């Protein structure tokens, strides 16, 4: 990624270059005037341009129009605050207008560029029955490089969310036909938690209670229409930063630090609820407990770093094989578990045995060369009156039988 800084102050350009390379590990080109900027723009492609308004050879902000004509996102740095100029630049479609006050201004700019890079993969759903309002919000979001999807009411928004599970942010108006903003949020929150989807409510109504009602119903934030560009962008970015923080905390609590599959804590909590659900519906659920054969020998022979490489690749193969429909977790050490909700033991056995055979014939590449790894597994089925711990203990009995029979086997432990 390449960034252009157009700034005649050597101090400011040095600070921006340092912060950008530190924050993003990117290439930064610096131009001290418009002529130099044009030369660089003629020979390079830039992700974003950070420009001063007043340059030695362009005193009236001509560089901004030139950059925007090149379809390059533009962040304006300026030493003078002019309300009319600010409004004019925002109307042109710049990303942001930053007043050069102190180091925090430059840090904000660097973090904004980092956010822009991440925004390219962020999907935002805008639900509003007003075409004019939707298009306006869409234009603001696209200035910040978001992927934008539109819905004209709450029902359409729900359908869109079902079809696009990777949507990160929902921006919804209050007054909509068929299903209003409150009803939409309530239905969404029945399925998606705050670590999965952020929501911002909008309304042009003068009712002072709307903001509290939106947030109590599950929204992360609320914005009164009409709003200014900067307030909208600040609310969106703050909401997404908060979502990132919540998601990170959730991952730290529920994912294994090394292999990035679910951890023991998550598996126990998740499947204890699932067992109750399966028992009530008289459904089926099988569980496989896997243990890498002779893993201690791998650590003793090649070192723990190679052992970690084996664990990471083994977990990756488990995820690739099973995580789309089932649950993969690391129980501890070289032990992993796969929960097969909806499958009887015969089908679970067939899937795990196929995985075992594929693992045996596909060596794991490590920093010390290719290693052939095998796995022993115990498989069991839920008997409708057990805890997760009891189910795992019975699977462990099957695992012990597989190891006793020579390893590299799948053994069924009957309920």
From TrEMBL:
Domain of life: Bacteria
Domain Response regulatory: residue ranges: 2-115, 123-240
Designated name of the protein: diguanylate cyclase
Modified sites of kind 4-aspartylphosphate: 52, 173
Catalytic activity: 2 GTP = 3',3'-c-di-GMP + 2 diphosphate
NCBIfam families attached to this UniProt entry: GGDEF
GO biological process: cell adhesion involved in single-species biofilm formation; negative regulation of bacterial-type flagellum-dependent cell motility; phosphorelay signal transduction system
Organism: Shewanella halifaxensis (strain HAW-EB4)
The keyword Plastid belongs to this UniProt entry's keyword annotation: no
Coiled coil location: none
Classification via CDD domains: GGDEF, REC_1_GGDEF
Molecular function in Gene Ontology: diguanylate cyclase activity
SUPFAM superfamilies noted in UniProt: CheY-like, Nucleotide cyclase
């Amino acid at each position: 990624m390449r960034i252009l800084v157009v700034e005649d102050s050597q101090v400011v350009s040095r600070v921006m270059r340092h912060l950008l390379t530190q924050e993003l590990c990117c290439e930064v080109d610096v131009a001290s005037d418009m002529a130099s900027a044009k030369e660089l723009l003629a020979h390079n492609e830039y992700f974003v341009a950070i420009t001063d308004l007043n340059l030695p050879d362009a005193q009236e902000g001509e560089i901004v129009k030139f950059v925007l004509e090149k379809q390059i996102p533009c962040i304006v740095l300026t030493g003078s605050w002019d309300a009319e100029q600010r409004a004019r630049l925002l109307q042109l479609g710049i990303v942001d207008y930053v007043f050069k006050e102190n180091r925090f201004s430059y840090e904000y700019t660097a973090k904004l560029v980092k956010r822009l890079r991440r925004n390219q993969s962020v999907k935002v759903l805008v639900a509003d029955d007003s075409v004019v309002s939707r298009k306006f919000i869409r234009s603001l979001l696209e200035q910040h490089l978001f992927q934008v999807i539109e819905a004209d009411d709450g029902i359409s928004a729900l359908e869109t969310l079902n079809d696009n599970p990777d949507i990160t942010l929902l921006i919804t108006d209050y007054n909509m036909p068929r299903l209003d903003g409150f009803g939409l949020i309530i239905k969404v929150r029945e399925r998606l938690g705050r670590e999965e989807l952020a929501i911002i409510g909008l309304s042009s109504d003068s009712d002072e209670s709307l903001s509290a009602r939106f947030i109590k119903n599950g929204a992360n934030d609320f914005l009164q229409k009409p709003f200014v560009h900067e307030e909208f962008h600040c609310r969106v970015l703050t909401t997404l930063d908060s979502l990132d923080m919540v998601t990170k905390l959730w991952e730290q609590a529920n994912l294994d630090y090394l292999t990035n599959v679910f951890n023991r804590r998550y598996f126990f909590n998740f499947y204890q609820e699932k067992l109750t659900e399966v028992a009530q519906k008289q459904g089926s659920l099988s569980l496989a407990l896997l243990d890498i054969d002779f893993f201690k020998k791998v650590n003793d022979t090649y070192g723990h770093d190679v052992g970690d490489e084996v664990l990471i690749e083994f977990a990756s193969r488990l995820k690739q094989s099973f995580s789309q429909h089932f649950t993969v977790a690391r129980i501890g050490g070289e032990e992993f578990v796969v929960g097969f909700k909806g499958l009887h033991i015969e089908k679970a056995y067939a899937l795990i045995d196929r995985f075992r055979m594929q693992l045996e014939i596909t060596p794991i590449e490590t920093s010390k060369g290719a290693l052939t790894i095998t796995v022993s597994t115990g498989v069991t089925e839920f008997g409708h009156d057990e805890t997760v711990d009891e189910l795992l203990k019975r699977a462990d009995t099957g695992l012990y039988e597989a190891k006793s029979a020579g390893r590299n086997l799948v053994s069924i432990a009957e309920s």
